[in-house]
């Protein structure tokens, strides 16, 4: 009975569900399935197979109903299984665990073979789900292993082998971008690293600007200056924090000028530290023009990871360079301001100021 709904009521192409099939609408997946009498198969509405003649189409509420009517599942869209996005997410999650468990980063071909895909297809799916390539994911995981191993290892050499590096030269080549300082300094909790900082006042409240030997490494906003200093201390508890001198005040003045007049820009080097994915997100944020906004979805699509919307939001929340990396310009799809690390009211004030500018 379910299989012949259209013959009992109206032609298939006059049913509202037909337009979803023509549009291959993913939003309709799960709400119904359709079968094609000439092929003997049933599909999801979003199936990319050749469009059927509506005279041969029938609609079903469930895969079981379609199969009870004598139809078999399409091998292309696999309507009797979980949606493709869920299958791919589960596959990628399993691959991630494989990468994390490996002593050395696995080869792309080996990962693809284990996933049952070609290297090209696997690479594309992995990047779409995670936002980074398998190689970048492996590098980020090794970086995390290095950070965890250095404080407890007997030596830097021991830590590098624990993290999966098979040669010290390759480790030291990667150490700077991974840690932002020498492995020895990181292992000692930042001992030997010098961070200059100053706290000032701007129209948004207290502002802390910190600089490493590579550039501005933190711009923090808040109501309590002491809380901002404690935040900086927590990042590198054993680093040498140096209070501002007259020359450094000029850097602080430039940052405050960016807050007050965003159209001026910031001509200072930045020391941007984060995972490969975070850095891609932050780079995309810096391309949003003053006075404009972008949705989390738009940023995810811009970096080639359309399904990584939640990860984009997490990268925005992890940004420690307020205004310089303008995460305040990212809003929800409906235009709502959503959250902001330094308070939604500051986000609203920044956007209003930029719109006026």
TrEMBL record:
<dbReference type="Pfam" id="PF02805">
    <property type="entry name" value="Ada_Zn_binding"/>
</dbReference>
<feature type="binding site">
    <location>
        <position position="74"/>
    </location>
    <ligand>
        <name>Zn(2+)</name>
    </ligand>
</feature>
<dbReference type="GO" id="GO:0003908">
    <property type="term" value="F:methylated-DNA-[protein]-cysteine S-methyltransferase activity"/>
</dbReference>
<feature type="binding site">
    <location>
        <position position="43"/>
    </location>
    <ligand>
        <name>Zn(2+)</name>
    </ligand>
</feature>
<dbReference type="GO" id="GO:0008270">
    <property type="term" value="F:zinc ion binding"/>
</dbReference>
<dbReference type="InterPro" id="IPR036631">
    <property type="entry name" value="MGMT_N_sf"/>
</dbReference>
<feature type="domain" description="HTH araC/xylS-type">
    <location>
        <begin position="89"/>
        <end position="189"/>
    </location>
</feature>
<dbReference type="InterPro" id="IPR036388">
    <property type="entry name" value="WH-like_DNA-bd_sf"/>
</dbReference>
<dbReference type="InterPro" id="IPR004026">
    <property type="entry name" value="Ada_DNA_repair_Zn-bd"/>
</dbReference>
<dbReference type="InterPro" id="IPR014048">
    <property type="entry name" value="MethylDNA_cys_MeTrfase_DNA-bd"/>
</dbReference>
<dbReference type="Pfam" id="PF01035">
    <property type="entry name" value="DNA_binding_1"/>
</dbReference>
<keyword id="KW-0238">DNA-binding</keyword>
<keyword id="KW-0010">Activator</keyword>
<dbReference type="GO" id="GO:0006281">
    <property type="term" value="P:DNA repair"/>
</dbReference>
<dbReference type="Pfam" id="PF12833">
    <property type="entry name" value="HTH_18"/>
</dbReference>
<keyword id="KW-0227">DNA damage</keyword>
<dbReference type="InterPro" id="IPR035451">
    <property type="entry name" value="Ada-like_dom_sf"/>
</dbReference>
<feature type="binding site">
    <location>
        <position position="47"/>
    </location>
    <ligand>
        <name>Zn(2+)</name>
    </ligand>
</feature>
<keyword id="KW-0862">Zinc</keyword>
<dbReference type="GO" id="GO:0032259">
    <property type="term" value="P:methylation"/>
</dbReference>
<keyword id="KW-0808">Transferase</keyword>
<keyword id="KW-0804">Transcription</keyword>
<dbReference type="InterPro" id="IPR036217">
    <property type="entry name" value="MethylDNA_cys_MeTrfase_DNAb"/>
</dbReference>
<keyword id="KW-0805">Transcription regulation</keyword>
<dbReference type="InterPro" id="IPR001497">
    <property type="entry name" value="MethylDNA_cys_MeTrfase_AS"/>
</dbReference>
<feature type="active site" description="Nucleophile; methyl group acceptor from methylphosphotriester">
    <location>
        <position position="43"/>
    </location>
</feature>
<dbReference type="InterPro" id="IPR016221">
    <property type="entry name" value="Bifunct_regulatory_prot_Ada"/>
</dbReference>
<dbReference type="GO" id="GO:0043565">
    <property type="term" value="F:sequence-specific DNA binding"/>
</dbReference>
<feature type="binding site">
    <location>
        <position position="77"/>
    </location>
    <ligand>
        <name>Zn(2+)</name>
    </ligand>
</feature>
<feature type="active site" description="Nucleophile; methyl group acceptor from either O6-methylguanine or O4-methylthymine">
    <location>
        <position position="327"/>
    </location>
</feature>
<dbReference type="InterPro" id="IPR018060">
    <property type="entry name" value="HTH_AraC"/>
</dbReference>
<keyword id="KW-0489">Methyltransferase</keyword>
<dbReference type="InterPro" id="IPR009057">
    <property type="entry name" value="Homeodomain-like_sf"/>
</dbReference>
<keyword id="KW-0479">Metal-binding</keyword>
<protein>
    <submittedName>
        <fullName>Bifunctional DNA-binding transcriptional regulator/O6-methylguanine-DNA methyltransferase Ada</fullName>
        <ecNumber>2.1.1.-</ecNumber>
    </submittedName>
</protein>
<keyword id="KW-0234">DNA repair</keyword>
<dbReference type="GO" id="GO:0003700">
    <property type="term" value="F:DNA-binding transcription factor activity"/>
</dbReference>
């Amino acid at each position: 009975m379910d299989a012949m709904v259209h013959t009992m009521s109206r032609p298939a192409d006059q049913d509202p569900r037909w337009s979803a099939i023509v549009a291959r609408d993913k939003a309709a997946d799960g709400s119904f399935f359709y079968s094609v009498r000439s092929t003997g198969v049933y599909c999801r509405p979003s199936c990319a197979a050749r469009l059927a003649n509506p005279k041969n189409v029938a609609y079903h509420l469930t895969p079981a109903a379609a199969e009870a009517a004598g139809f078999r599942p399409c091998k292309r869209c696999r309507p009797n299984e979980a949606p493709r996005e869920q299958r791919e997410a589960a596959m990628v999650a399993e691959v991630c665990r494989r990468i994390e468990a490996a002593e050395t980063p696995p080869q792309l071909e080996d990962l693809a073979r284990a996933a049952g895909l070609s290297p090209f297809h696997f690479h594309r799916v992995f990047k779409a789900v995670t936002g980074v390539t398998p190689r970048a994911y492996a590098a980020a995981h090794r970086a995390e292993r290095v950070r965890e191993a250095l404080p407890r290892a007997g030596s830097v050499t021991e830590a590098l082998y624990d993290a999966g590096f098979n040669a010290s030269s390759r480790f030291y080549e990667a150490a700077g971008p991974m840690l932002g300082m020498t492995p020895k300094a990181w292992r000692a909790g930042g001992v030997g690293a010098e961070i200059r900082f100053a706290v000032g006042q701007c129209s948004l409240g207290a502002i802390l600007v910190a600089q490493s030997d590579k550039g501005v490494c933190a711009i923090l906003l808040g109501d309590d200056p002491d809380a901002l200093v404690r935040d900086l201390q927590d990042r590198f508890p054993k680093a040498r924090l140096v209070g501002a001198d007259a020359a450094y005040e000029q850097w602080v003045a430039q940052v405050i000028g960016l807050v007050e007049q965003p159209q001026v820009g910031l001509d200072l080097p930045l020391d941007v530290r984060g995972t490969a994915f975070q850095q891609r997100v932050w780079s995309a944020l810096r391309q949003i023009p003053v006075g404009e906004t972008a949705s989390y979805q738009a940023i995810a699509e811009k970096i080639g990871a359309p399904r990584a919307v939640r990860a984009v939001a997490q990268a925005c929340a992890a940004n420690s360079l307020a205004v310089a990396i303008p995460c305040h310009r990212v809003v929800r799809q409906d235009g709502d301001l959503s959250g902001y690390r330094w308070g939604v009211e500051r986000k609203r004030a920044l956007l209003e100021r930029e719109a006026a500018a």
